[in-house]
Amino acid sequence: MTSFFVACNEPNPSFETSSSSIPSGEELYALHCASCHGESGDLGLSGAKNLKKSALTISEIKAIVKSGKNGMPSFRGILGAASNIDSVANYVSTLHE
Ligand code: HEC
Questions:
Q1: What is the pLDDT of residue 68?
Q2: Which of 12, 25, 32, 52 sits between 20 and 30 A of 39, alpha carbons compared?
Q3: What is the rounded distance in angstroms from the CA atom of residue 95 to the CA atom of residue 42?
């Protein structure tokens, strides 16, 4: 059950292979979130909510990403800069259909 958490919890993710030095929301999502939520948001591993169906606002998404909720760990320390939290939250809002 904790294996996802460990895989998502690398302290210093390197973005050197990405095309830009600032990781996009999509890259951050693929790196940190897709392991539970899936690339399109509906994988649902470890009880992860379906992000395609989630109707949260960007600020509600950011609050959950920062603090975590139940089975979801806090990503504040992992994503680091507030701008990374902003971009991943913006990306999550695009998954909603
Ligand atoms: C270890 C697995 C795991 C990872 C990794 C993970 N999540 Fe979650 N996520 C969950 C679980 C479990 C929930 C359900 C929490 C609850 O009980 O409400 C959740 C809920 C959410 C919700 C709330 C959806 C709703 O409608 O209530 C959002 C938004 C979310 N995750 C975004 C993210 C983002 C963005 C990332 C990457 C930064 C991420 N998650 C990484 C497991 C994970």
A1: 97
A2: 12
A3: 9
CA 41 to chain centroid: 10
User: Among the atoms of ligand 1, which is closest to the Cα of residue 69?
Assistant: 15
Distance linking the first and last C-alpha atoms of the chain? 29
Q: Hey, which of 33, 54, 91 would you mutate to test ligand 1's pocket, going by the most ligand atoms within 8 Å of its Cβ?
A: 33
Burial of residue 23 (CB within 10 Å: 0-12, 13-18, 19+) is: buried
In this prediction, residues 55-62 reach a mean pLDDT of 96
Q: Round to whole Å and give the CA distance between 91 and 97.
A: 13
